[in-house]
Design goal:
By secondary structure, the chain is an alpha/beta fold. It is built from 7 helices and 5 strands, in the order αβαβαβαααβαβ.
Amino acid sequence: MRSLLLGLVAAVAVLAPPSAAAGDYPEKPIRFIVPYAAGGTTDLLSRAIAQKLSEALGQGVMPDNRPGAGGNVGAEIAAKSPPDGYTMLMAPVSPMAINVTLYGSKMGFNPEKDFAPVTLVAKVPLVVVVNPSVPAKNLLELIALAKSKPGQLNYGSAGNGSSNHLVGEMLRPRPGSTWFISRTAAAGPG
């Protein structure tokens, strides 16, 4: 966490406006946009980072949850904010990489042109879990079960375009296959 904090402080200093070179940055609180609802992994990581940055910079770093459209709402707000060093975005994979394939030119920002990467915050593994009543002890057994019961198994995800949705889609059959796991989107934090 210490090296992450040092990297973020250095990045904020580099991305700050020219007046920051005089040693007066930050003069006001920094807005830290979180493009998902409160309570999820992205929010929890953002709040921990904001607290440490506040302590290190001697100025408030305020998380600002702006959920919607798979992270696009918050990302667009950040992209349209003045480039003055007082707005940061916690940028998960959906609005930075996945959503461009879903929304294309309808996105109100360009992930490659409108943002400068600062640091990798976390790698979050995806885990497949099933109810204990499902007779599958691993992924191969789950796939075998799905093949034996076409259309009878469902999975939940955080919504269209989320990484767990895409993994679920990867488990769907290829052309000519006779099985599938159907998807039930579950609303929840990303």
